[in-house]
Amino acid sequence: MIPWAKVHPMGSLRTNGHAANGEGWEQPPFLRRVRVRNFKSIEYCDVELQPLTIILGKNGAGKSNFLAAIEFLRDIFKLGVRGVFEGRFHTWESIFPRHLPIADSAPIMIEIEADIPSNEEGDVLDSGRVSTELHQLSGRFGLWFRIQDEIPIIEREHFTVVSNEHPLAEYQVRNGMLDEQNFSFPSQAWLPEKSVLDALRRPDFPLLGLLKAPICRRFASRLQAMTFYNFMPAAIRSLYAPTHGLLLDKSGVNAASVLREMQRNAPERFDRLLECLRLVVPEIGEIASIEVGGYETTRFAMKDGKHADSASFDAASMSDGTLRALGCLAAVLQQPRPGFEPSLVAIEEPETSLHPEGVRALFDALDEATQHTQVLLTAHNADLLSSRDISSSQVLMVARRGGKSLIAPLDASTREILSRELYSLSELQRLDQLDLDEADVERQANLASREAI
Predict the structure, then answer these.
(1) In this structure, what DSSP letter does residue 188 have?
(2) Cβ atoms within 10 A of the Cβ of 153, count?
């Protein structure tokens, strides 16, 4: 059994999925829980996520590092360990925590609990067919990384399929070797070929992405379908060579291509994007992707409140806030393939450069998007918290202490104040009265010390 099942069962923590307003949530959240050890400024964290979660903290607290850890896990499935270090993080030291003096003194660990998408016909396991209508299937997955002979490798890996808190199937990989005695999937036919297993002696890709089991494939595909955004208005303004427009780039640079494909293949989503954007910036009449000298950009038709005429402006002439809002809405409404959307959309500080009224309208649109995807936001501005629909359970606080980032729910006194409606979240944030739940910080510290690495 995996270590946390003995110490702190993740499967026992379930949330009744609802959007922030308590209505309209049709699916459970994809990521239910995330645990990280020794990643950048995070020495250890163990937190639960909601359909919409706001990660709140001051500049430099470590909010982005939490998102980076989840993104790192996704990239491992896409690029392998060496590909990630060569193409994204460049060096082991760039992600290793600064509070540890020697880079190979302890491994980096990332573990998650996430829902496994349902197979309409049910999933076959040892005991026969398990109806996904009656059993909530989730997966517990974890990876440990080390440097070996100056090469980053996956040192350990585990995966367990859980139904109603009961393990149904699992495997473990240690030091590049599959523990075949603990491989409890229903058939050896689900194992990859021996040549693939032999390659795990110097592991680069997770075994989970190689297994033939439909459950494993769906779980891995959902991990790869997570998206992460830090919108750069300068990138969205720039003229850009047209792309296929299937997936929005992290900076938003290909927004015009994504909008073009959305209008062509999912017109109802394009119309909803425009409707929401008008709530954020009421002066906008229409938007369209246009080609300029072989490049592509977005053109905005702006209404004049006093006249029926409108003036058109390209993205190069639009404000930072308008372009960020456009990126956020495109991120949560995009459909890379018909019937598919990102399993999770994480956005860095969507409130930046927006008027408070625009922030509230944008937050409502992001909240609505939780009907089809999970949304994860970072913020340091009280304006994002001004909606009365935000629950204290949707907020995770991040604070820097002793050079380390601590992540925990809001403290008990804050939750009491909010429940009695004495102050709002935004008012408490402006007063600098939001803090970590010290009991949960202690729980995480105890859990970290009890777990063997």
Answers:
(1) G
(2) 19
Residue with tokens 């994860």: 376
User: How many whole angstroms separate alpha carbon 212 and alpha carbon 221?
Assistant: 12
- Predicted TM-score of the model (pTM): 0.88
User: Lowest mean pLDDT: which of 5-9, 69-73, 141-145, 440-444?
Assistant: 5-9
C-alpha torsion 53→58→63→65, nearest 10: 180
Residue 90 pLDDT > 60: no
323 versus 11: the higher-pLDDT residue is 323
* pLDDT at residue 335, as a whole number: 86
Q: Are 245 and 297 in contact (CB under 8 A)?
A: no
**Nearest alpha carbon to residue 428 among 409, 414, 411:** 414
| φ, ψ dihedrals at 416, nearest 5° | -65, -45
The residue with greater pLDDT, 430 or 26, is 430
CA distance 187 to 414: 51
Using CA atoms, how far residue 364 sits from 13, 286, 407, 436, in Å, is 27, 21, 25, 26
The CA distance from 394 to 53, in Å, is: 5
Q: How confident is the model over 189-216, as a mean pLDDT? A: 72
Three-class SS state of 378? strand
Q: How sure is the predictor about 135, in pLDDT bands with cuts at 50, 70 and 90?
A: low
Distance CA 32, CA 209 (A): 20
Q: CA of 223: how far to CAs of 106, 112, 176, 208, 291, in Å?
A: 25, 10, 22, 11, 34
Q: Which residues, 6+ apart, have CB-to-CB distance to 247 below 8 Å?
A: 227, 258, 334, 336
The confidence band for 18, taking pLDDT boundaries of 50, 70 and 90, is very low
Strand duo 108-115 + 137-148: pairing: antiparallel
Q: Which of 168, 169, 163, 165 is nearest to 208 (CA)?
A: 169
CA distance linking residue 363 with residue 276, whole number of Å: 10
Bridge partners (DSSP) listed for residue 145: 108, 154
The C-alpha atoms of residue 231 and residue 252 are separated, in whole angstroms, by 6
Please name the helix (run of DSSP H) or strand (run of DSSP E) that holds residue 274, with its range, or none.
helix 267-280
| Gap between the Cα atoms of 291 and 294, Å rounded | 6
User: Strands (DSSP E) along 316-444, which ranges?
Assistant: 344-348, 374-379, 395-401, 404-409
Q: Do residues 44 and 36 touch, judged by C-beta distance below 8 A?
A: yes
Q: How many CB atoms lie within 10 A of CB 291?
A: 12
Instruction: Tell me the C-alpha distance between 380 and 369, whole Å.
Output: 22
Angle at 344 between CA 365 and CA 63, to 5 degrees: 90
pLDDT digits (tens, 9 = 90+) for 161-180: 888 778 888 888 887 777 77
Look up residue 89 and give its two tokens.
């993080």
